[in-house]
């Protein structure tokens, strides 16, 4: 089985597991990883399903997954990067935007990204050098060049509220200068929506490798740009990600540079500490 077939199959099997919890909400158990950071038994069951499918075909590959397989580097070897439910808060509240995300990297380079939007039945797939698709149809980033005609997406962190002031200044700028701002609640969806030209750009801090490990490649293969907030190409573990069509990506980056202190731009935290 190819990595692509394996990932698509695993994402769809996991989506079935998630849907069974969604339709029997009495069976849903929610726990807290932090004061507002939820995890449900559906997250755990989804992750187990995905890993067992991947391990059947690729038993020696390494796994980075949100609910039990953390790692701080994928620089060497074959790595699967998994978010079993992206948008857990949405899922726990029955708000219908949540995705399964599976990325595959070799020696620190993204090879494959699959994001499956469970409720809309949209499967976003990209392979390095082969473009990006949604349900088999080629997708591309938007051609919007003017911020005033752009729909911008962002996310709000669940923790790490130090230095939220500069973040709010950035938010205010887009509120006043973009067409509008959206916060769907699933970073993988936000990035795929950039890839599909629905959003012109996206920025967020507090993101983890499993939030961006698949969808970052989907944006790139759709003709978009993904960087960290400082404009560097190391976005997987950067915590701060900006994506968009090439023009709007640069517009957002300039605004981040204007409002966010330099030590924060280059740091993996929001107050510049390490
Ligand atoms: C979260 C979502 C959300 C983003 C958070 C993520 P989770 O992922 O992607 O949109 O704002 O930063 O943690 O916890 O639902 O997998
Ligand atoms: Ca996530
Ligand atoms: Ca998750």
Describe the overall structure.
The protein is α+β, with helices and mostly antiparallel strands and 274 residues long. The chain has helices at 3-23, 41-57, 88-93, 164-177, 187-195, 209-212, 215-221, 246-259, 262-265, and strands at residues 30-32, 38-40, 62-65, 78-86, 99-106, 109-117, 122-127, 132-134, 137-138, 151-154, 180-182, 201-205, 225-228, 240-244. It folds into 2 domains: 3-138, Fructose-1,6-Bisphosphatase, Chain A, domain 1, CATH 3.30.540.10; 147-265, D-Maltodextrin-Binding Protein, domain 2 (3-Layer(aba) Sandwich), CATH 3.40.190.80. A hairpin with a 2-residue loop joins β5 and β6. The chain is globular, with a radius of gyration of 18 Å.
Alpha carbon gyration radius: 18 Å
The ordered H/E elements are: HEEHEEHEEEEEEHEHEHHEEHH
Fill in the CATH topology of the largest domain.
Fructose-1,6-Bisphosphatase, Chain A, domain 1
Spans of 5+ residues with little confidence (pLDDT < 50)? none
**Count of strand segments:** 14
Ends distance: 42 Å
Strand order of the largest sheet: 3-4-5-6-7-8-9
Principal-axes geometry comes out as globular
CATH architecture of the largest domain: 2-Layer Sandwich
Structural class: alpha+beta
Total domain count: 2
* Full CATH superfamily name of the largest domain: Fructose-1,6-Bisphosphatase, subunit A, domain 1
The largest sheet is:
7 strands, mixed
Tally the helices. Answer: 9
Q: What ions, cofactors and ligands are bound? A: D-MYO-inositol-1-phosphate, calcium ion
Helix content: 25-40%
Mean residue pLDDT: 94
Strand content: 15-25%
């Amino acid at each position: 089985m190819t990595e692509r077939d394996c990932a698509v199959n695993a994402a769809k099997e996991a989506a079935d597991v998630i849907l069974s919890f969604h339709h029997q909400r009495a069976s849903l158990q929610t726990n807290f990883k932090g004061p507002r950071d939820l995890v449900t038994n559906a997250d755990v069951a989804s992750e187990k399903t995905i890993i067992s499918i991947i391990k059947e075909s690729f038993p020696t590959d390494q796994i980075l997954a949100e609910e039990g397989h953390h790692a701080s580097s994928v620089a060497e070897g074959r790595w699967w990067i998994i978010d079993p439910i992206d948008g857990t808060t949405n899922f726990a509240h029955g708000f219908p935007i949540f995705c399964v995300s599976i990325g595959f990297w070799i020696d620190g380079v993204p090879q494959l990204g699959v994001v499956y939007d469970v409720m809309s039945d949209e499967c976003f797939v990209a392979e390095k050098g082969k473009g990006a698709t949604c349900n088999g149809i080629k997708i591309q980033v938007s051609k919007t060049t003017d911020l005033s005609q752009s729909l911008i997406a962002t996310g709000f962190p669940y923790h790490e509220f130090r230095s939220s002031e500069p973040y709010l200044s950035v938010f205010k700028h887009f509120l006043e200068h973009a067409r509008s701002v959206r916060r769907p609640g699933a970073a993988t969806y936000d990035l795929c929506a950039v890839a599909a030209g629905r959003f012109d750009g996206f920025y967020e801090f507090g993101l983890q490798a499993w939030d961006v490990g698949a969808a970052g490649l989907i944006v790139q293969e759709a003709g978009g740009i993904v960087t960290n907030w400082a404009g560097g190409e190391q976005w997987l573990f950067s915590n701060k990600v900006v994506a968009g069509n090439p023009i709007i990506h640069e517009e957002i980056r300039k605004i981040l540079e204007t409002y966010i202190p330099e030590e924060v731009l280059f740091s993996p935290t929001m107050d510049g500490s390490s």
